[in-house]
Design a protein that fits this description.
Helix content is 28%, strand content 24%. By secondary structure, it is an alpha/beta fold. The strands form two sheets. An eight-stranded mixed β-sheet has the order 6-7-8-3-9-10-12-11. It has a four-stranded antiparallel β-sheet with strand order 2-1-4-5.
Length: 326
């Protein structure tokens, strides 16, 4: 990939926890443990995995909401891995964040207008008329119209879908180059999920946005994601184009994620699908070898539980971290 907007290499984020009498024993939760990825300008990629795999921590670390433990983050040709808080102001303007819980992400004591003006004021937009024009324009973009009906409302006066549109509006009002959307539809009614995903797709194309879409649901990635990274226990275990992953999943964990998607065909109700047993491993003390091996039904004897597999390119642009291919 030539000149990617975002380049992440061997990124790690560990959280310290204390155990034992008086908390003398120090351990580390390895929430992100050696993740590498790239994102082109105007591209949308998905990071997919079940709860606790580290995908939200990965997104927040990329945005520098968490300080990385190790690795490198390069954005638009500039190393942002260890920028101090003053230098980060530039990065904050170039990036946006769409949270999972829209109501919790919005200050309840601010009106819609004030919520959208706040980032403009922080970043030095002093002209009041200019700020108002930007607020009206962004509300029209996310289809909170007529604007006059929403501009003076408070978050509790909006529906869940309208609240998420407001969160999206706030994330793009500074015209960033990158948006991280963390499970943006998981807390919404099924009837509005597709609308929000279609809105993100439209904004990506019209604003030439790069988007990192974080989700546990593979079925939603097809709406606008161009590539998929499958994440398990703080590692990326498979990556390829979206259509390729959905058509030809190679890692046993990816196949398991596809198998738990509800099948609308009633004739398949008696079909037995491969679903892993057990729970994801502890990120304080992950298992040796492949981290998925305690739940995998396709073990390679003498390798899976001993040595961590390398990430190999099985097909053009299709990478898998599994001893079945390594």
């Amino acid at each position: 990939m030539n000149d990617p907007l975002l380049y992440v290499e061997d990124l790690r984020k560990y959280f310290e926890v204390r155990r034992g009498l008086f908390g003398r024993r120090r351990l580390h939760v390895k929430a992100v443990d050696g993740v590498s990825l790239t994102l082109a300008r105007g591209e949308a990629v998905s990071i997919v995995g079940e709860s606790g795999c580290g995908k939200t921590t990965l997104g927040k670390t990329i945005l520098r909401l968490y300080e990385p433990t190790g690795g490198k983050i390069v954005f638009d040709g500039k190393d942002v891995t260890h920028l101090d808080w003053k230098e980060l102001k530039w990065y904050r303007r170039e990036t946006g964040f769409v949270q999972q819980d829209p109501f919790g992400a919005l200050p309840p004591f601010m009106t819609v207008k004030r919520i959208l003006e706040e980032p403009l004021i922080i970043h030095g937009f002093k002209d009041k008329r200019d700020r108002e024009e930007r607020v009206y324009k962004v509300l029209e973009r996310v289809r909170l119209t007529p604007v006059e009906d929403f501009i003076n409302k408070y978050p509790h006066m909006l529906s869940g879908g309208q609240q998420q549109r407001l969160v999206i509006a706030r994330s793009i009002i500074l015209e960033p180059k990158l948006i991280v959307a963390d499970e943006p539809v998981s807390m919404l009614d099924a009837s509005v999920r597709v609308e929000i995903l279609k809105l993100l797709e439209e904004l990506q194309r019209s604003l030439d946005l790069s988007i990192i879409y974080i989700t546990h649901d593979l079925s939603t990635t097809r709406y606008f994601s161009e590539r998929i990274y499958i994440m398990y226990a703080a590692h990326i275990v498979e990556s390829a184009g979206t259509k390729e992953v959905l058509r030809n999943p190679m890692h046993p964990y990816t196949r398991a994620l596809l198998n738990v998607i509800p099948d609308p065909d009633p004739s398949n109700r008696f079909t037995i699908k491969e679903v892993p047993t057990g729970e994801p491993p502890s990120l304080i003390d992950p298992p040796p070898g492949c981290r998925f091996h305690p739940r995998c039904q396709n073990l390679v004897k003498g390798l899976c539980d001993v040595k961590e597999p390398p990430m190999v390119e099985v097909d053009k642009g299709h990478y898998v971290k599994c001893w079945l291919y390594g």
